[in-house]
Design a protein that fits this description.
The chain is of the alpha+beta class and 277 residues long. 16% of the residues lie in helices and 34% in strands. It has two domains: 60 residues, no CATH class; 206 residues, Alpha-Beta Complex (Fumarylacetoacetate hydrolase, domain 2).
Length: 277
Amino acid sequence: MRLLSVRLSDGQTSAAVLTPDGARLIDSADVGKLLGEGEFAELVSRAVESGEKVNLDQVQMLPVVPDPKKILCCGLNYRAHVREMNREEPEFPTLFAKFADTLTGPNDDVVLPVYATDVDWEAELAVVVGANLSHADVSEARRGIAGYTVANDISVRSWQRRTLQWLQGKAFDATTPLGPVMVTPDEFDPASGATITCTVDGRVVQTGTTDDLVFDPAELLSYISQFTKLAPGDLVLTGTPGGVGAGAVPPTFLADGSVVEVEISGIGKISNTVRLG
C-alpha cells in the first residue's frame, strides 16, 4: 500500500492512497492523522473502493506526515558513512531530534538564509511509526512500523560544527524534504537491501543499500521507546550512507540553485531545488 498527503486546490489537505487507476482521497486530513484513526484499515479500504479520484499533477505534495509529534534521527548508522567520517562503529545509536517545522514537501524548494553556509545533503530512509510503543522489544517495534518513506536530512554544517550538539545545524525550518509516499512493510523490507542514492545536479554523490545499517529500523524504534513513548505518525530517520559533501576531499557543498534528488528503490524519489541567501 502506498499512502500520501496532499493539499487540494481549495487549500484543504487530505490523505490519499495510490490504486491501479490513480490516487484516491481518504477521509482524513493527512497520513499522520490517518494512522491515529481507530478505523484506519476501514478508511483506506473505503477510499480504494469509492474514494474521490485526484490528479496528482493538480495538487501539492506534502510531507507524507506533515505534523508529527516527534522526529528522531540517527547519525552514523551506515557503516560506509562511519568509515568516511573516521569514526568507530557505535555501540549505541547516535540520536538527535528535529521539529515538525523542519519538514517540507518532496518537490518543494529548500530556502535558506544567507548566513547558512556549508549546506550538505544526507539521503535517508525514514520510518513512520504506526503504533504506540513504550519499552518495546525489537519484535514489538517491528510490528509497530506503519511504513517507510524517503527523506533528505539537509544539514547546515557551519552551524552544526559550532558545538558538539548537532541540533542547530539540523533543524532549520523547511529543510527536510519527506515523501513522496509511505510504503507499508508488506511491500518494502529494508533488510532486502534497497538501493538509496542521492544526486546533485544529476551527479551521483551517494549510493548505498539499506542492509548496511548498523541499527535496523526495528532496533532503533525499540531503543528509542526505552526512554520516550512513540505514537502513530512519529518519524525516525535512520541515517545516511557514505558520500556526504563534508566527507569529500576537499569538502563539497550545495550551491544556490542546486537540484538535489534522493531515491530509494521500492519507494520513490524526492527532488528539491536549494535556494541560498
